[in-house]
Every structure is written in structure tokens, then in C-alpha cells.
């Protein structure tokens, strides 16, 4: 299945969701900011994984899968808008564009994040009840606290950090949501899918650490060296570039072998590898002379 | 039905919801801030209205009603935490205590608001599907944009304000949610209940304007004169104190006559009057010599 097939479904579903905020006589700036924050430009990795899992499980209700993918990406977009704000990373650029608080204002960035969170649950609430409710429950668990991305960010305010809980919540949570929501959207039990999501999350964390260390701001579309500035743990600092690349390959191998038995198991394995390749183009790694 | 009966149900339901954030090994500061933001001290007017409507409609599934009341109040608490932040009202005090960004930090206030929004939907997602989904849909509509409190705040960033859309979204939305969610929680059609919520919202707006003009900071538990500072429309500025009191009485009369026919119609009317009395104690008005 080519990646462009996923991309079209995902962008259409996100556009439908954002369209819900444009009815009636909405406040123009907030409406524009919500659209700006959810606009194409990101890798859409989480909904791509969600759709891949749903298709591997049969994808018998594509509208539910699309809504689930859109909802998950809206939560991710909300977290980026809030994380970029001055009281967190104070970032100027995101996806190659000015961040929402710079393009609009701080109040509008705060409201945009809030609106996107609410919109995610709104989108899911319009699906068939037997799948909508577990989708909402899983998305809420992986978004809020203690097991979601809010908790992940919250750990950064602690003097003593539980590293495993921190990484699992901050980066892992939305990947676990991706695999589990993909299964639920296709009418399957989400439990066997947790490990795949957790392992993809670990791989993504290591890949993110590599990009933070290897790329410059123009290539990455956002500030680099943020981990060093904010004194956050980083796999490249701990293992070096070669060590981090080796660790990434190990995690991906574990991820693929954790895929539960399902009709589309083989193509899902290929999908995970293709997604991993998008994270770190090998041309970039070849240009890095050792560590 | 004495107000203390509602109060006990509401506080227990909120405590149950907040308890969900305390399982496992949560980040301590965020967990504490969520509890602080949802702690008793507010009037709990919105869930009181929700429970009153549910009881007037038979309240045949009290657990659903309690969850709905808690979810609605959590959204209200979230909006207070975010509205108090430096980029909005920059308020020091709320409910007689330091605001969350002062008691904890700005990052934790942002995350606390986000976590409370997510928790509200999480709580509802655990109820029976036939009521949970419409509850989630109505709460999302009245929280996000274009018809919810996010849109209401968003209007304050516009150069030309649609006053009717602004008031209906900013103050009215969660009162409409209160009456409609009360009906849904009791298995009734929410549509006939929209007008009562909208009118209570208008009454609350006028009462809030009166308190902003008549009370001092210690009595109100938050800064006064905010409308004048932020150049927001205010009924006392437009109509004077006597005019605003008269307008408040008119709106309440309309609210009571809009109550749909239901088993508990008469006691609900009393409840609306009792709630109105809590908003502006008559002793305070008697001490104000005319305008």
C-alpha cells in the first residue's frame, strides 16, 4: 500500500474535522489558527500507523478509521501548539512555519490547543457507539494524566524524574494510542496491540534524538539542540550516533516481531519499516563519519 | 431538595474523577495541581443546574448524572485555570486561593487545564453508550469552537465583536450544556432544554457584571473591575445597577417560564430561583443606595 494512499485519507479526514469549526459565525482568528495548526506539513506518522493497523485488521468501517486517525493527529497538533508556547519550549518554528503563538498570539495559541483537544473527542463522538466509546476512552487515557502526553510533559516539572514513565507517557503514549485505536476502529481487541505501539514510540524517541543531533534547523523545520538546552535525556548523548542507530534497529526488530497475528501482518511489517526510513533518511546517516 | 444534597453528590463525583489521575506512578506536581484546580470552593452552579434538570426528568441513572455533572464542572475548572494565565487575565486569586500558575507554575497551569479537559471526556466515556455519546457530543460542542467557551474567549481577539455570539459562547455555552446534559443523563431529548440554559446563562452574565461592580476582591475571591480593565461589555455600565437588577429579574422570569413540561417542573423553578439568590445576595443589593 503506497504511503500516498494513507496520506490522502488522513488529510481528507483532518480537513473534515477542521471544517466542523467553521460553521455558523465563528470568531475568525481562532478559526484560522485552528486550521493553521492542523494544516498539512507534518509527517502524520501517528495516523499513518493507526490506518496501517486498521487495514491489517480488515478496516471494515473505513469512516471510523478515518475519524480515529484525524482525532489522534488533532491531539498531536494540540500538543505541539501548547509545547511550543513561551512557558514551555518557546519555539519560533514548527513544520517550517512560525509557531501559532507567533503567527497569531499567545491567547490564540492556548485556545487553539484547547479547541483541537475538544475537536478530537467531538469527531469520535459522532461514530457508531460500539467503537466510538472505546476509541474515546483510549485516546483520553493516552492524552491526559497519569498515562498520557500531559503526564509526559508534567514529568519535566519534577525534580526527580521517573525516566521510564516519562518516555512512555511523553513519546510512547500517542503511538500506543495509534496501534490500539487502529485495532478498535477495525473492531478488534486493542490489548495485543499495546506492545507494538510502545516499541514504535521507543524507536521514534531514539530517531528524534538522532535528528536533534544530526540536522540543522532548516532541514528539521524546528529548532535543534533543544534536548541539550533543556537538559533532557537523549540517546545520542548516552550512546553516540552509531550506538543510537544500532539501538534504533534493535527496537524496530522487536516492534515487527511483536505484531499480533492478523490478515495484514506482512504488509504492516513493511509499513513499520517504511515509516522508520522516513524518520532518518539513510543518506543523512551515510554522510555522518562515525560518531 | 436542599442544596447540600446536590453539593454532596457533585463533590463525590468530582473526587471520583480526580482520583482517576492519581493511579499508578503519576508526576506529583501535575497530579497535585489537577486536584487543587478541581477542589471545592467554587459555587458548582453548572453541575447543580445539571443535577436539578436530571432530577426534574426522573434521574433514572444517577451514576450517569453524577458523571455528567463532574465532567461539566471539570471543563469549567479547566477554563478558569487557562483564563487566569498571564496571557489572558493574569489573575492572582481564584476562589480565594492563588491561581494555579502562581501556586505551581505556568507550564503546570497549561497542563492542568489540558488534563482537566481530557478527564471530562474520559469520565463520560465510561458511562452506558446510549447516554455517554450524546453527553460527549453536547459537552464538546459547548466547550470548543464555534459554539463553545473556546470560541467565547476567541471573540476577545477579534477587532469587531459579534456581541450576541460572544456572550452566548463565553457564558451561555456551559449553562446550555448544563440543562441539555441534565436531560440526556435522564434519558430525555435535550432540544427543549436549550432555551432554559441560554436564559440562565444570560442571567448569570448580568449577575457577574453586578458582582464585578459591587463586590471587593476579598468578598469575590478574585480580582474585581476586570471588565473595565479589559474593555469588555458590561450590563452595569450600560444600564446602571438598578437597570441591571431589573434586567436580571426579567431574564429569570423568562427562564422559569421556558422550563419544559416534566415531572419535577415546580421544584426546578424553585431551584432556579434559589441559584439566582446565591449569585447576588439581596443584603448586598439593599446596601447599595440606588445606582
From TrEMBL, chains A, B:
SUPFAM superfamilies: Terpenoid synthases. PANTHER family: FARNESYL DIPHOSPHATE SYNTHASE. Its cofactor is Mg(2+). Keywords: Isoprene biosynthesis, Magnesium, Metal-binding, Transferase. This is Polyprenyl synthetase family protein. InterPro entries: Isoprenoid_synthase_dom_sf, Polyprenyl_synt, Polyprenyl_synt_CS. The keyword Transferase applies. It comes from the Bacteria. Belongs to the FPP/GGPP synthase family. Gene3D superfamilies: Farnesyl Diphosphate Synthase.
Amino acid at each position: 500500500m503506497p504511503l500516498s494512499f494513507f496520506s490522502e485519507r488522513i488529510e481528507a479526514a483532518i480537513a473534515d474535522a477542521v471544517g466542523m469549526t467553521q460553521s455558523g459565525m465563528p470568531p475568525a482568528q481562532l478559526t484560522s489558527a485552528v486550521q493553521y495548526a492542523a494544516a498539512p506539513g507534518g509527517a502524520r506518522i501517528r495516523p499513518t500507523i493507526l490506518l496501517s493497523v486498521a487495514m491489517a485488521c480488515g478496516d471494515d468501517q473505513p469512516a471510523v478509521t478515518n475519524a480515529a486517525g484525524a482525532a489522534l493527529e488533532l491531539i498531536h497538533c494540540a500538543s505541539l501548539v501548547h509545547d511550543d508556547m513561551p512557558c514551555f519550549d518557546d519555539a519560533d518554528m514548527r513544520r517550517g512555519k512560525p509557531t501559532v503563538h507567533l503567527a497569531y498570539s499567545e491567547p490564540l495559541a492556548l485556545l487553539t490547543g484547547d479547541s483541537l483537544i475538544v475537536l478530537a473527542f467531538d469527531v469520535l463522538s459522532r461514530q457508531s457507539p460500539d467503537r466510538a466509546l472505546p476509541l474515546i476512552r483510549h485516546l483520553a487515557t493516552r492524552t491526559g494524566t497519569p498515562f498520557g502526553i500531559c503526564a509526559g510533559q508534567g514529568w519535566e516539572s519534577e525534580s526527580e524524574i521517573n525516566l521510564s514513565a516519562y518516555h512512555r507517557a511523553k513519546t510512547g503514549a500517542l503511538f500506543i494510542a495509534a496501534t490500539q485505536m487502529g485495532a478498535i476502529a477495525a473492531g478488534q481487541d486493542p490489548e495485543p496491540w499495546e506492545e507494538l505501539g510502545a516499541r514504535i514510540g521507543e524507536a521514534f524517541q531514539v530517531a528524534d534524538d538522532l535528528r536533534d543531533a544530526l540536522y540543522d534547523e532548516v532541514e528539521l523545520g524546528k529548532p535543534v539542540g533543544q534536548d541539550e538546552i533543556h537538559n533532557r535525556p537523549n540517546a545520542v548523548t548516552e550512546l553516540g550516533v552509531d550506538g543510537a542507530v544500532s539501538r534504533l534497529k534493535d527496537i524496530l526488530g522487536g516492534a515487527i516481531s511483536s505484531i499480533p497475528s492478523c490478515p495484514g501482518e506482512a504488509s504492516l511489517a513493511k509499513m513499520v519499516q517504511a515509516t522508520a526510513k522516513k524518520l532518518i533518511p539513510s543518506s543523512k546517516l551515510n554522510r555522518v563519519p562515525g560518531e
